[in-house]
Amino acid sequence: MSFTSVQFVVFLLLVATSYFLTPKRYRWVTLLIANYIFYFFAGPRYFIYLLATTITIYFAAVKLGDMSAKNKADFAAAKADLDKEQKKNWKANFTKRKRRVLIPAMLFNLGILAVLKYSTFVGSNLNALFERLSLGIEMPIHSFLLPLGISFYTFQSVAYLIDVYREKYEPERNLAKLALFISFFPQIVQGPIGRYNDLAEQLYRPNSFSFEKAKFGVQLMLWGAFKKLIIADRAKVIVDMVFGYPETFGGTYVAVAAFVYCIQLYGDFSGGIDIATGAAQVLGIQLEKNFLRPYLATSIPDFWRRWHISLGAWFRDYVFYPLSLSKFFMKVGKKGRQVLGNYIGKLLPVLIPQFIIFFLIGIWHGAEWKYIAFGFYNGTLIVLGILFDQPLKKLIEKLHIRTDCFSWHLFQVLRTFILVALGKIITRAPGVSASAYLMHSMVKNWNTEVLMNGGLLKLGLDTQDLWVLLFASLVLLTISLLQESGVQIREALSKQNLLFRWIIYLAAIFLLIMFGVYGLNYNASDFIYRGF
Amino acid sequence: MKGCFKIVTRCVAFFVVFSMIFSNTSDYLRRPDDESDEIHAFYDESKDSIDVLFMGSSPILRGVSPMVMWEQEGFTSYIRASALQAPVVTYGLLGESLEYQSPELVVLSCDNIFQAYDYVEREGDLRRGLDGMKLSKYKFQIVSEVTAADDRQTLLSYMFPLFRYHERWKEIDWAEAKPIPLMEHSFKKGNVYLRGGEPQAYPENFMEPSGTPAPAFDEDTKGYMEKTIQLCKDKNIPVLVLHLPKMSWSYEQSLAMEEFAKEMGVDYLDCDQEEIRSQLNLDPAVDYYDQGHMNLIGSIKLSQWFGNYLDGIYDLPDHKNEEAYQSWNEDYQEYAQRTKPES
Would you give the distance in Å from CA A256 to the centre of its chain? Predict the structure, then answer.
């Protein structure tokens, strides 16, 4: 059930009506039933994976909770008789025992994800390697269809389990309630990846109907649909044309397509997130922010703090910190200081985990070499940024460049955008060599004439569609700039007179109906991030 | 409570404004089409004022003139036919029509019973009969059938055609654009006549036994034909299955149709059977638009004969001097004026 389909609107309407008509005590049950119906529509045979994750995470978390409770009681009783060393050993032993529960549960769930998502990639690459080495071995390869939202609900569940392991909160002892947290329908498709302490309480409490919240939710859904149907799906035509025929469209066309692909990806992904957030808001539930105007970022780390925020935060909390603060990397840092000097050595426990994180983010996006290359590209930029941060600051000072002015800020934004767009070429091209070919062609055959002599009309959109894309993208930019300067659009709109508000609402609805890319004459496209 | 009332009132008001703009926008983006206009101007006819309903495809649409029959016999009729009308649309349109009218007779064309209907290929023809239909259980039934057979289409795009035509904003010159609502009243009563055409000649051995077996009925089309006839039977309305002149028709098809009508317990009239052809006295060089359709001259000639035939067999009422039917006389004046031979 696509977020931009009428079925979804009708589904949401039915869910909201049933939810608010259900006695308060049982509202969360209505929501759970709705989640499972939604997931059932996506493919009943994938249900088993969702159930397997729910059940294993539930039992592992409850076991961890029980262990922690028992350990607390035992420790309190024995504490007085223990010296410092014994206390330390007690703690270490307990951690070991907890890990015996945590690690198998994590491996099981991440293993399902890995097998479904990466087995074809790993198998085909191993087979290629065996062939090259003339080993005469051929591994059987099975390709699986990915269950809807598996990356998202697996990460969300694993985060919950780790938090219970870390004793950040008590485990949920009601299986059905945990099932609700793992399967909340607006976010299961493409995130944001929710945290138990933010989301669960909102899901379990009996939310009352709020006209204001419902109105804001619908407005956000409309805005999301605008980004998806008017911008992203129109931009897709150009992107598919150029990246589909790299030999035909070189030079400036590649730059145009990379630029347009940035718009498409943002419109598509953030549009989907807006619809998800809006749908949740109708039910009185606030999801986490997943985007913060990423193309206004002033550096690559800043971009990653604004793009797919929940994924970045997940990797930061559950991979980066544990790695960076691990004993191993502490030792690496110490050794590094001896060998490479204080400056670089001190940074090593940050740089290597950063690189690992971006490698993981790369493969999270897909089981292909191009995503690994994308991860390395971003990892390299981040590492270089950290390494050259101080020297560059000194250089800027020496050259007397002012950094507290608009022009410097603009330069930073444009520089970051160009670096991001180059990265997008890697992920959108059919493969790593194709992306290298496209980048080479972009530099070698640069010819800005195509922008003026009607060359853009070769990219699949007619003049009217190009104007719509341009105008809609400018609307998106304007809204982003207003939000960046602190204006809260929906709140500001709600303060206007009724007539003005209605004009805006009706204009938005009819713009969507008229200029939305849907129906037979257009190839309706699915949300890009739904595939992850 | 007061707050709740305010919210509901606002929502209703917003929905009303939205519906008005939606309807207006639909009228701007609608493709103008005389067949759709004629078929749906039916709603303007007074309740229970139609004596004969014609259902089916283009031979009836082009070949039968209700106004000629009115002038000559005084009974009222309306054509709810369109080119290559899908059997499911004929069924749905008749079901809907019988909610508004209680006719003395329903005439059904049968030419398409030998063909399977391709919903994907024939979307345009489907929409002629469907897009302007008012929302009803019959429309829903048709759309469900069509969307089940053609998964590229959605229920919404048929129930509200704006969702299908939305990208027509590109074709419209907005400086001169104006809404094109469906025609409200038809003086032709559903007939869409054609002027001129190419002189035709009957094929060699036309309507003579060929010795080959009759082609098989398409099962789906036949099924809908049976359902359509059953709809009339349920309301005790007599049915005449009609075949109008068409040069690709055959003796074997005619026999098969006759057999079908007999099985269904309804009347059958084949205008290509020799006896009827001689009574009609059509001149293929003058009266045909093409091999399958009458032109205006042919339709007038055919309707004069046919009106007389229907009146004779079914004893239809004559309303010509009734006060309630004066608008029909006015419509006839308009028709006569418009159908004058071009100088």
Answer: 25
> Distance between CA atoms of A420 and A308, rounded to whole angstroms?
14
ipTM: 0.76
Q: Provide the 10 A C-beta neighbour count for residue B41.
A: 20
Chain B residues with CB-CB distance to A211 below 8 A: 7
Spatial distance between the Cα atoms of B238 and B51, rounded to a whole number of angstroms: 11
**Is residue A257 a contact partner of residue A289, using CB atoms and an 8 Å limit?**
no
Report the residue of A513, A521, A522 to disrupt the B interface, i.e. the one with the largest count of B CBs within 10 Å. A513
Give the homologous superfamily in CATH for domain B48-117+188-338: SGNH hydrolase (3.40.50.1110)
| Phi/psi at A128 (5° precision) | -65, -40
Lateral strand order in the sheet of B239-243? B77-81, B52-56, B105-109, B239-243, B267-270
Measured between alpha carbons, how far is A149 from A155 in angstroms, rounded to an integer? 10
Alpha-carbon distance values, A120 to A123, A131, A360, A363, B150 (Å):
5, 16, 17, 13, 34
Classify B330 as helix, strand or coil: helix
DSSP state of A485: T
Q: pLDDT 10s digit of each residue in chain A, 532 long?
A: 788 888 899 999 999 999 999 999 999 999 999 999 999 887 788 889 999 999 999 999 999 999 999 999 888 888 888 888 888 898 999 999 999 999 999 999 999 988 888 888 888 888 888 888 887 778 777 777 778 889 899 999 999 999 999 999 999 999 999 999 999 999 998 889 999 999 999 999 999 999 999 999 999 999 999 999 999 999 999 999 999 888 888 888 999 999 999 999 999 999 999 999 999 999 999 999 999 999 999 999 999 999 999 999 999 999 999 998 888 888 888 888 888 888 778 888 888 898 899 999 998 888 889 999 999 999 999 988 888 888 888 999 999 888 889 999 999 999 999 999 999 999 999 889 889 999 998 888 888 887 888 878 888 888 999 999 999 999 999 999 999 999 999 999 999 999 999 999 999 999 999 999 887 765 444 555 444 4
CA distance B91 to chain A (A): 26
**Which residue, among B106, B141, B101, B147, has the nearest Cα to B123 in the 3D structure?**
B147
Hey, is the C-beta of B2 within 8 angstroms of any chain A C-beta?
no
Domain-wise residue ranges, chain B = 48-117+188-338
d(CA A268, CA A261): 10
User: Residue B288 has which token pair?
Assistant: 């045909």
**CB–CB of B185/B155 below 8 Å?**
no
What residues of chain A lie within 8 A of the CB of B21, using their CB? 506, 510
Residues in chain A within 8 Å Cβ distance of B167 = 519, 521-522
Question: CA-CA-CA-CA torsion for A351, A354, A355, A361, nearest 10 degrees?
Answer: -170
Q: What is the residue extent of each domain of chain A? A: 6-206, 210-250+262-287+442-532
